[in-house]
Each structure stands twice: as C-alpha cells, then as structure tokens.
Write a structure and sequence with these properties.
By secondary structure, this protein is of the alpha+beta class. It is 35% helix and 13% strand. A hairpin with a 2-residue loop joins strand 12 and strand 13.
Length: 424
C-alpha cells in the first residue's frame, strides 16, 4: 500500500480531504475537492475558482506571446538567412514548444537544420586525395558557431556549442534587453534526433486530451520560477514534464474537465504519492510500471515488502568489484533518478538526468498544501470580503509578475505569502 509523504520526510496514512463551500446565495460557487490515488473524483458543481484562474493565466500568456511575435519572426528570418549562406540547400525547421503551443514567453525556440546527404558525412580526420592538404577536422556545429559570431543581431557572449550530448546543440540569444531576448537552440538532423517525430505524437495527445495543455503551461512556469525546468542542472526537461502530465491525465475520466481540481490532484499524486525509485512512467502503454526486476518484484510481493527500497545497502567488500559478466547483467537505467519512457524510443529514459527529482516532488507537495490552505482561507474570509474580494488562487504558486495576470482588471486582494522560500 502507498503512504503519503510530508515535506519533512515523514509519512502519514492515505486519507481523503474535502473542502466544500456552498452558501446557497446567488453569485457564490460551490468548491468541492477530493483527493484520491489517481487524482480528482468527478463531483457535481460549478467550475472551480482555480479553473477560472487557470483560464485567466492562459489568456495572459496568449497576450504576452502575441507581444513577442514580431521578435520571434525576425529571429526565424535571420537564422534562416545565416544558415542558407553556409548551406544553400539546407532546410531549417522548427520544432518544440513554439510549434505545439506549449511555450512560455521565455521558452527557447528550437530549430533543426536538415542538410543534404553530401554534408552529413563525418569530417575528414586526415587529408586525402579528395580533401587536399588543407582538410579541417571540424563539425557542422563549429562551422555554424563560427559564422554566428559574425552576426551583429546576436549576443556573441551567449554562443555556446554543447557537443557532449546525444544530440549536439548550439545555444544562442538575440542582442536585446533582458526582457526582450529571444533564445535559440540549433541542432542538426541525425538518426538520434526525434524532435520532428515528437511533434506528431504531442499533437495527437493534445487532441485526445485537451486538459494536458493548461496543466503543462502552469507547471512549466511553476518549475521555471524555482529553477527546476532545466535538464542539465538536474531539473525536469519540458518533454519529461509533458509526458508526466500526459500519463496522469490518461488515468482520468475523459468527461472530467475541471482544470483546477485536476491540477490539485496532479500535484498531490506526484508530490505525495509517486515513488520515482520504484515506479516508471509509460505514456505509450498507458501505465505505470515497476522498476524492480521480475524476480525481485515477485519476492517483494511474497514478503509484503514496503514500496520504498532501503536507503542504504550493506557494503560487502568481497563483492565491491563486479566481474564483466555481472556488470552486463545490470538492468539499464537501474540507477536513474526517475524513469520516464520516451514513446518514440522505448529504451530511452528522458528523465535520466533529473537528479533533483526529489526537489521537484517537494515543490509539488508544498504547492498542493498551499492551494488547500488558500481555499480554506478563502472560505473563511468570504463572508468578510464578499465575492468582489476574491484573490487569484494561482498567485500562491506562480511568482512571475510580468507574465501572470497582466490583465486590465487585476484582482483587488492578493495573498501576501508564497512558496518561494520553502521550495528553494
């Protein structure tokens, strides 16, 4: 059985929590939320306040993106011109969050450069008859990076070539004020590159489950505020977050459309119940699966062992060094902090670099607790402030004032506390 973690590392038994507000008067809403292992249980009632806050956030996000549209179009045209100056027959294609409409105003623009077959050969290591005496052992990434250094519309200090990854990438940003910068990620097409293939899969999931989009956008801003949305610093990648949200939404009733209770259920599940060391996530097969080996899993069930493995294993000095045969029997990804299966490549774990997953989980747990506390405060103070005194519930999660609720009529009363300190 699963137990529920607290933010201080202890556990307490699984229980249901209900928050209900039904004054019976006109203009008031009925707030009814209930936890369960797989999220909110469909209940009768009007759309929750949190759902309306999410809708306002989505509208605000749309306005911010529209303001940046001209700068993004300029960046696309300029990078296309620069690449075609090097390789006239190259095709420059966009992929990622800006194509799927899962982007924030600060999200990078992702480009893949498709070169003709003649340019895809590996660079020469030694000069030969065809290369001549001046052959240069240089990758396409370095060739393009050198060209970008001559472009005055780019910030030269921002150019970084990251080659020690499965898909090498060039990171660069435009030359502008901090709030107006457009960041670009440039990569070259290769068999390991699944960016364009992922577009069709993501679009299919968004059409099948529209609830995914608002949840992903809220959680992306939430993790970005806390520095947990960057894969190479141990946070979750945007793709990994999308798959986690999609898998959670696959478990919910297709008729359930209350975004607020869905968000609270997701924060509760991944923050308080989900155990990444023992449970994997597969969107392709629509299931959570055990990361135990089959024999270990059967033995654990026979012995009614706890779901969490021991934190420390006794050291046997005799077996500290494994033979080659023993090493080959190790399960791939056994020591990865979280296993999130890539639907396009089942052997690929998109969460293998998320070594700060427990910070992410604590942030989710604190966020769920803050929302529950905000709802309780709202119910207790409704009689004093009335309907006109409603503050946005989502404000206790998101910290970016430039993006959140930049509407013409902001709510007059706001919460003064946030989770910024508790999640750092």
């Amino acid at each position: 059985s699963y137990s529920r973690r607290t933010s201080v590392g202890g556990t307490y038994a699984d229980s249901d929590a209900s928050i209900e507000h039904n004054t019976g008067g006109p203009g008031f809403q009925r707030i009814h939320y209930q936890d369960s292992f797989f999220g909110p249980i469909p209940l009768h009632g009007m759309q929750s306040r949190l759902s309306k806050d999410i809708d306002r956030y989505m509208q605000s996000l749309k306005m911010q993106l529209k303001k940046n549209e001209q700068r993004r179009t300029f960046a696309v045209n300029q990078i296309t011109r620069t690449v075609n100056a090097l390789w006239p027959r190259a095709q420059i294609k966009m992929y990622g969050s800006h194509v799927t409409k899962l982007c924030l105003p600060s999200s990078d623009m992702d480009f893949v450069i498709c070169l003709p077959a003649v340019h895809k050969n590996a660079p020469a290591t030694t000069p030969g008859d065809l290369e001549g005496r001046n052959a240069i052992n240089e990758t396409n990434q370095k060739i393009l990076a050198r060209r970008l250094k001559g472009e005055n519309w780019l910030d030269q200090r921002s150019i970084k070539v990251i080659e020690r990854t499965a898909v090498p990438v060039i990171k660069v940003s435009t030359k502008d004020s901090r709030s107006r910068i457009v960041q670009l990620d440039l990569s070259f097409d290769a068999k390991e590159h699944h960016g364009l293939e992922a577009l069709d899969m993501i679009r299919h999931l968004l059409e099948e489950i529209p609830m995914i989009r608002p949840l992903v956008l809220v959680l992306k801003q939430f993790l970005l505020d806390r520095g947990l949305l960057t894969a190479y610093t141990g946070g979750l990648s945007s793709y990994c977050l999308f798959l986690m949200v999609a898998r959670y939404c696959q478990e919910q009733s297709p008729t359930w459309n209350d975004r607020g209770s869905m968000l609270m259920g997701l924060l509760d599940f991944y923050g308080n119940f989900f155990e990444p060391r023992t449970t994997g996530i597969s969107v392709k097969t629509r299931r959570y699966f055990s990361r135990f080996g089959e024999n270990q899993h059967q033995e654990a069930r026979r012995n009614n062992a706890a779901t969490k493995p021991p934190r420390f294993q006794p050291l046997n000095r005799q077996n500290s060094f494994q033979t080659a045969q023993q090493a080959s029997q190790l399960q791939p990804g056994k020591f990865d902090p979280i296993w999130v299966e890539d639907p396009l490549n089942p052997g690929n774990n998109v969460g293998r670099n998320a070594f700060r997953i427990f910070q992410v989980q604590r942030a989710f747990s604190d966020a769920h607790r803050a929302l529950v506390a905000a709802l309780e405060w709202d119910i207790n103070s409704m009689s004093e402030f009335g309907e006109d005194g409603e503050y946005p519930l989502l404000k206790c999660l998101l910290q970016n004032e430039d993006v959140f609720f930049s509407m013409d009529e902001p709510a007059p009363i706001r919460m003064s506390t946030s989770l910024g300190a508790s999640t750092k």
